[in-house]
Structure prediction request, 720 residues.
Amino acid sequence: MKLLALFFLLAASVVNAATAATLHIAIVTAQAFESPNRGKSFAGIQTRPERSIQRAVELALFESTTSFDASGIDAQLKIIDLNKDRPLKEQIEQIHPEALVLVDTPKAEFIELARLFHELNRVTVNVRHSDALLRDQLCLPTLYHTIPSDRMYFDALSQFLIYRGWRKVLIVHGPTDNDKQRTEILKQSLEKFGADLSEIREFTLSHHPDDRDKNKPEFLTGGASYDVVAVIDSAYDFGRYIQYSTRRARPVVGDVGLTPMGWHRTLERYGAPQLNERFQTFLPDQPLSATEALSDTEFAAWSAVKLITNSLHVIDSTDSVIQPRHILSHPEAQVDLYKGTRGSIRRWNHQLRQPILLTTGDAVIAVAPMPKFLHPKHYVDTLGLDEPESPCRMQ
Amino acid sequence: MTIHHPIRQTSRLLTILSILTIAGPCYAFEALITNERSGTVIHVDAQGQTTEVVPICRRPRGMVRGTTTDEVLIACSDDHKVIIYDRIKRQVTREITPVPGAMNLTIHPETNRLLVTNEGAAKASVFTLSTGELIAALPTGLEPDGIAITENGSQIFVASENSGLVHVFDGVTYEPRGTIATNLRPRRIALRNDTLWVSTEMGSRVEIFDINTLVKINEILFAPKGFRPEQMTPVDILFNDAANEAYVALGSANHVAVVDLNTLAINKYILVGRRAWGLGLSPDQSTLIVLNGLSDDFTLIDLATKRPRLTKRAGLIPHSIEVFE
Prediction:
């Protein structure tokens, strides 16, 4: 009881101390390594917004102004765009050793950087890649993921299908390795929650008449019995044409149609409209239109900074430099995600646990976990690999 | 041809029984409920019947009793004003405007003041209650919600949901007197003796602070059966000193907690509707009324037995409640 009281006293003193402390944040991008067609499909059609995560990070810092003032914290944001011609290590060594480093680069460079940062003992956050590989195999103690994993997205979708009673699923996927890997994860999710797999089929972009079974949506979805078509098309090349062209009149889900997302512009509850409005208007000279919202990557970048600023009380406040590593590894670190349940870090694979939204273009249809999917310990831990299932076992 | 229908007969029997029980120990009251999405105030009697639906303004949220028992003040968020509604005449008698993003409010009749939080504007506003004249603007963190003033008018508290802070202001000079760091998303503030109770919606707890030292002295965690800790999203706090109890609406946990004011132990969890947040108490302390924000209804709880008596339809997104004789 005495200890508890002491803790409360300490917590209160954070407010009154007003000692100057600095929070270092770094954004690492690699424009030179990005595909020139990033976010675009054939013929330059933009399928996804591609903005720098800087705006999202600045929003998170803007939101923290009052609490920073109250506790005497000053935030320093450093942005590094990697040069192709210089050694990566040399470039990232400029970053403050105690910075929270948000990495927004293509996957190959991300993996290289994550390893380098690990060698340098710097804390890194993945805000962009949902790949299982980064969580299950790479599994670095310095690496955290605030973007949901594919498994979280697909577990949310699978729960929704079971909840709706749409158990029989036809999977249609693209030809890339990424599509095939994600199809495998979708399959595992569907199996876990008890869906029936009707068939798995691959589409091709070829228009050749010999390929019509694989390039015409009517044929691709014909000759099978299913309640719903799940489309995996990481490049957004073909999947967009499957809706309304299926052989049977069935809903389409996955990368098109009903899509699991980390964030959405039309979430009505939990303070989400305020966050969306703020994102559009907080920079008076660079306003965004009212239809724009944080992408999943931007939301992940915002979440990472907010996890630190929402949890400053868990660490010793007397240091002149705030050490995000001690917050990220603290079991009581938590973040208000504006989606009804707070977020926190899974100790076993450093993934930010969070609800997943099931969305269409203009509505949030459901927020997973769906009713009746109960986890013995943590409300949202039916989404993503649970501790006993995870090959990554950090503590 | 008559079809024998056992289920329907049972339900008819239940209806008769429930009418009999309702007619029994119940005292009359009138409750007013603001409905955020339908833009109405509804009048509800002790049987849970809606006796009047009054279109009032766009997005009516916070509501508080006026200086007479005929009046309530209502924050109209999307009309950026506060209205004074006469519940006997069933009409709006006065408006205070502009009040940008009016969210929650309280009054201090002894000093003739109205205090309102301005949700989108990161501030709270103080008005002369009788004239509607703006006296002061109090800067806060983002998304200010709960607001309270001490009985002697010397201290004002405003919760900023986004910042995780309760801002403290001098009740006379309006100078900032510091901040209290709370858990995630502080929503409502309730004052009792020298303590300040704050519900932290995403922190899943009620924190209790000493209003003189601003130091945290206690906290209450919740654990109704079948829910995980992070599903506790407490909002309204209501004291019933006569019964030595406090009630806390647990939001997405769909329960109300009954807290013993001496020990802070939770005596009972009462199952209500979805996302329970607004709370009202009948003047005779016999009935607790709980507004369920996601199921658009309200639940009457018999406080003698701590059992829900009935649940009835409200307007769309019921927000706040005041109960009168």
